[in-house]
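Thread title: Can someone regenerate the structure for this chain?

I was given the following input by a collaborator and told the matching structure tokens would be attached. They weren't. Posting the sequence so someone can regenerate them.
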Amino acid sequence: MTAAAQTETAVDDDLVLVRAAQAGDLDAFDQIITRHQNTMSAMLHRFATNRADLEDMVQETFVRAWRALPQWRPDRPFLHWLKRIAANIGLEFCRRHQRTPFSRLVQPTEESHPLDHIASEESATAEDSLAGAQFILSHLPPDDRALLTLLHLEQMALDEISAHFGWSKVKAKVKAFRARQRLKTILTRHGYTLI
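Best answer:
Regenerated them for you:
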């Protein structure tokens, strides 16, 4: 089976399950949770690496989805709709933790700075790189952090992001440009030179 055929089958299965869940079938909604839980966890992990916070956000995503299920329209892909709910929860989390969304992350010492390991070829694990990237992003305002996370880490289309935030496409482009400039300033401040 080709990737396109698998995607088509998954979309059809989502439609059947969502319709059943809209009719009150809790087992169908449990299947939806099982099907999309890993995707939501991977997406929300970019907003908070603390396991308890992450689990709370994933659970809140599905609680909100259940409550909003009657408003879902079949002309929109269900997974995109679910990701928008998760993105809102991630943004709310960042706003609640205004100073840094990674407040439990240990501040760097002079001997070991998370930024030192991001571009290093000696980086021990992907986890070290993720911690470094999260440390850098924690210096950005919540909207910038969410915008860059969705745009670059989740690879969400700018049209979808602008619709999600209620911005025009031009405003989204400008905000993305400014967020990248602020990120560049932070990286430069920490000794990185960008090509």
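The two ends are 42 Å apart (CA to CA).
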